[in-house]
C-alpha cells in the first residue's frame, strides 16, 4: 500500500549526444562496437525469467557486412508461446498487486540505465544489427527509448490522477485496472525504441506481456530485455520469444486470456491480424484492445513561396536517413514548377556528397537496407522505373548486395502523380517527385489527398502564411503528424506525439496519454457514506 501521494521526478527529454571526434561518447561507442564484433553472442528467449535455449539456432549478421557473424539466436516454436502465456499468467497477480510507484521506479531506473551504462550497448547493437549510423541510433535506441519510459511514467500518473467528482455524502473513485488477461506486443525491425515501448507501455500500466520482436532486430531486442531485467522487472512480466510471427499469432489469438494487441509494422499484417481477432471474438473474456501503428506514404508539398534550399535539405534528410526505412520517411514530393530548377540544383549539390557504407565509418550518412528480401524488392522497383515511360531516374538507381544490402539513394521524377511509387509504401531510399504547374495548387492538393491509402506524416514548405493555413486545413486528414517548414521525420516523445490514421493505423499516438489509456480497464467505485434507510422519496410525502 502506498503511504503518500508521491510525485515523480521532472520529466525531460534525454539530450542527444554529438559524438564529435575526441568526445568521450564517441570513444565509448567505438569500444562497445569493437567488443560486440570480437565475440559472438548466444541469444536465448526469456520466458518467466528463465533463459530458454531451444538449440535451434539462427545466425545474426550486420546487413552491411553479411559475412560477419554477430551471434545466434535460439528460435522458438508453438510450445514456447504456450510457456510464455503460462509464465505471464503466473506473474499477473503479483505484478498487479505492486504499488504504482514500484512499477514506475523500475522503468525510471531503466531510463537512467540508458542515460548511463546501457546507452552504448543499445546504440552499438542497433548500429550493427539494424545498420543505423551513430546519429540515427542515438535518437532512437538511446534518446527515444529513454523518453518513452520517462514520459510514459508521467502519463501513467496523469491517468491515475484523473478522478471523478463526488457529491455530498458520496466518494467516487476511478480505479485504472490492467486488462484482464495478457497483452501481445509484436514489434518491427526499424526502431529499437518502438520494440522496447510496445511491451513496456502496457507492462507499466500493470499488464503482463508476450513480446515477439522482428527476426532482424533480435540483437538489440536482447539488450533491451537485459536492460529491463537489470532495472528490476519481475520474472514473467515481459516474456521475449523468437518463434515465427504466424506461429505466435495462431497460439495467442486463439487464447481466451488474450486481452490486448500492441503492434507496429506493415498495414497488411495488421489488417490480417485484425480479421483473425474479429473471427475469434467469441473466444475471449473481454473485447481486446487493438493498437496498431502501420505504414505510410509520407509527403512534402512545396509552394512557390518556399525556401528552395530548405526543401532540398528536408527531401534528402526526410527520404534517405536510415535508408528511408522510417514509417515517416518522405517518399513522394509535389514541387512547384517555378521553383523546380532551383530545388534541383540544391539536390544536385547535396546528392553528390552523400556517403554510404558501414555505420562503423562515422562519415557515412547512409548504410544498408535491412535484409535481402527488402533489397530485392527495392531493386526491382528501381528497374521498373528505369523502363517506364512515365518516369526518369534523376539520381542513384544502382544497387549492390555483394557484401551488404546497399541501395543508392534514388530519386525518380514522374509525370504521372499516380505512378506506383507515388502510391505504395516501398520502405527504402527511393523518393518520387512530381513537379506541378504553379497555377494548379488546388488540383495538386486533391491528388495528394487521394493518391494513397495512408495518412501518417506530411509537410508543407511555404513562406506565405495564407498558403500555410490553406494547405494545413485542406490536408487535415492526410497526415497524423503534419509539419510546417520541417521534414516529416524525427518526432520527439512529449513534443510531437506520433501516429497516423486512414491505412496508417489506429492513431493512438505512441508515447502519449492516449496510448497509455488503451492498456487499462477502468472500474468506477461509488461509496455512499450514509446510505438511505427509507425507500420513499420526499416528493411522496402527504400534502
Ligand atoms: N506508424 C508507425 O509508427 C510505424 C513505425 C515503425 C514502422 N512502421 C511500419 O512497419 C513496417 C516496417 O516494419 P517491418 O518490416 O518489421 O513490418 P512487418 O509488418 O513485416 O513486421 C512487424 C512484425 O510482425 C511480424 N509479422 C510479419 N508477418 C506476420 C504474420 N503474418 N503474422 C504474425 N506476425 C507477423 C514480424 O515478424 C514483426 O515482428 C513499415 O510498413 C512501416 O511503415 C510503422
Ligand atoms: N517516430 C519516427 C518514425 C517511426 C517509424 O518508423 C519519426 O517520427 O521519424
From TrEMBL:
Keyword Lipoprotein on entry: no
Domain of life: Bacteria
Keywords: NAD, Oxidoreductase, Proline metabolism
GO cellular component: cytoplasmic side of plasma membrane
Matching SUPFAM superfamilies: ALDH-like
Catalytic activity field: L-glutamate 5-semialdehyde + NAD(+) + H2O = L-glutamate + NADH + 2 H(+)
EC number assigned by the record: 1.2.1.88
One GO MF term attached to the UniProt entry: proline dehydrogenase activity
Presence of keyword Oxidoreductase: yes
GO biological process, one term: L-proline catabolic process to L-glutamate
Protein name from the UniProt record: L-glutamate gamma-semialdehyde dehydrogenase
Species of provenance: Alkalitalea saponilacus
